[in-house]
Specification:
This protein is α/β, with parallel strands linked by helices. Helices cover 47% and strands 12% of the residues. It has a five-stranded parallel sheet with strand order 7-6-5-8-9. The chain has a four-stranded parallel sheet with strand order 2-1-3-4, with helices on both faces. The chain has a two-stranded parallel sheet with strand order 10-11.
Length: 415
């Protein structure tokens, strides 16, 4: 049955928001989510189809309750710990919003102002911040082979702390972007597409172009393009990854995408031609990233403390990028898409030609035309993160949602 049925049902039959909520809860009851309970969310391809569908359904259900002014607080107290090892606006506020939505208070760990800066171990830090923590959200995306490994080390540390009786509860972890995947972004992207296309069943056979695009900066993470091809290939779509020669992503993730496409009845292709990728595409996602080989080299240089080598690599990569300024989402490129009206997507912030930079990923006219859909795309992330947390912390998510509606506590007091 699955999510395919629920979206068709809600589309064909006009329902009020309460009826829609009840159908979502009914759907969640039919999904197998027991392995998510007291577990972490690292990579989308580590989760089952039911678990991914549950995240989308719970996200929609939480949004439904909030839109009806019903409080979704499932915690009376507790902490959501955030740790950002890279800059963030959207994801930082999305995590804070998600925690607040569920009743958790957010405490951001600034490593520069903590004992981590003085050599405190990961195991010690993880336990010291977790005495009253229910969830930990981490962004660590800058160094190949480091980010996801660090998240696992934190998870293992709090698991050991709980087993040893140091922690009364074991905080679960949400990956807010690592070197491999950006699951909260890509799950929010997918939920946006599901709504834009009128249901997940309508994604089958749709063409998505995940393409590299020129940026005047270097070193952008690989996790968004990798996350997109690792997730959307599970939805029966025709996914095309396009980039100039030499801008490869991780081979392991390409292998995941190929396997997913075969199992879902979709397709996956890699090309060095942006026009080929855009031709007839229903969805385009042009975004810059650094070559995998260069990111590996940068990680090694930082590990060696080779500042001159890092400067030389940066200069080399900027020059390499400059050879591909024609890789941009222009009005002419958009005309190649299906009916010239493909859904343009971006994780934001985009490098906008003539606005944020002289030459960039996307023309200002294209970006302006899609500004509202882009902001809507971003709006799903707080609910997706909240759904991940709820599924990690509660054994019976459907019952929790039902009880929230039954309780009917106003989010905003109305006299």
């Amino acid at each position: 049955m699955g999510l395919y049925r629920i979206n068709t049902f809600l589309k064909e039959i006009k329902m009020d928001k309460k009826q829609q909520f009840e159908e979502l809860v009914k759907e969640i009851k039919g999904l197998k989510t027991d392995k998510m309970y007291l577990n972490d969310f690292f990579l989308t391809w580590e989760k089952s189809d039911d678990e991914l569908k549950a995240v989308w359904d719970v996200a929609d259900a939480l949004r439904n309750l909030r839109e009806r002014n019903i409080s979704t607080k499932v915690f009376d107290s507790g902490l959501g710990i955030s740790l950002f090892r890279d800059n963030s606006t959207r994801t930082r506020f999305s995590f804070a919003s998600a925690c607040n939505l569920l009743g958790l208070e957010v405490q951001d760990l600034d490593e520069g102002k903590s004992q981590v800066a003085h050599g405190e171990t990961v195991r010690e830090t993880a336990n010291m911040i977790s005495f009253m923590a229910d969830v930990i959200g981490i962004r660590d995306d800058m160094y190949i082979g480091k980010g996801n490994a660090y998240m696992h080390e934190v998870a293992d540390s709090v698991e050991a702390g709980h087993k040893d009786g140091v922690l009364e509860q074991r905080p679960t972890l949400v990956n807010l972007q690592c070197d491999i995947d950006h699951p909260t972004q890509c799950m929010a992207d997918a939920l946006h597409v599901i709504h834009e296309m009128g249901g997940i069943e309508n994604l089958k056979g749709k063409k998505l172009a995940m393409t590299w695009a020129y940026s005047p900066s270097y070193g952008k993470p690989l996790s968004v393009p990798q996350g997109v091809i690792g997730l959307f290939t599970r939805l029966g779509m025709e996914v095309v990854l396009a980039h100039p020669e030499g801008y490869d992503v991780m081979k392991d993730v390409v292998d995941v995408a190929e396997k997913n496409a075969k199992e879902s009845g979709g397709s996956f292709k890699v090309t060095n031609d942006m026009k080929e990728a855009f031709q007839g595409a229903d969805i385009v996602y042009p975004k810059s990233w650094a070559p995998f080989a260069a990111m590996e080299k940068r990680t090694n240089l930082y590990g060696e403390g080779d500042t001159e080598g890092i400067k030389a690599l940066e200069k080399e990569l900027l020059a390499q990028n400059a050879q591909h300024k024609d890789w941009a989402c222009t009005e002419e490129m958009m005309k190649l898409t299906k009916d010239g009206k493909a859904l343009y997507m971006h994780c934001l912030p985009a490098d906008i030609t003539g606005v944020s930079c002289k030459e960039g990923e996307v023309d200002a006219t294209v970006f302006d035309r899609y500004r509202d859909p882009l902001y809507k795309e971003a709006s799903y992330k707080p609910y997706v993160i909240a759904a991940m947390i709820l599924l990690e912390k509660f054994k019976d998510p459907a019952k929790v949602l039902e009880e929230l509606q039954k309780r009917g506590q106003d989010r905003i007091f109305e006299a």
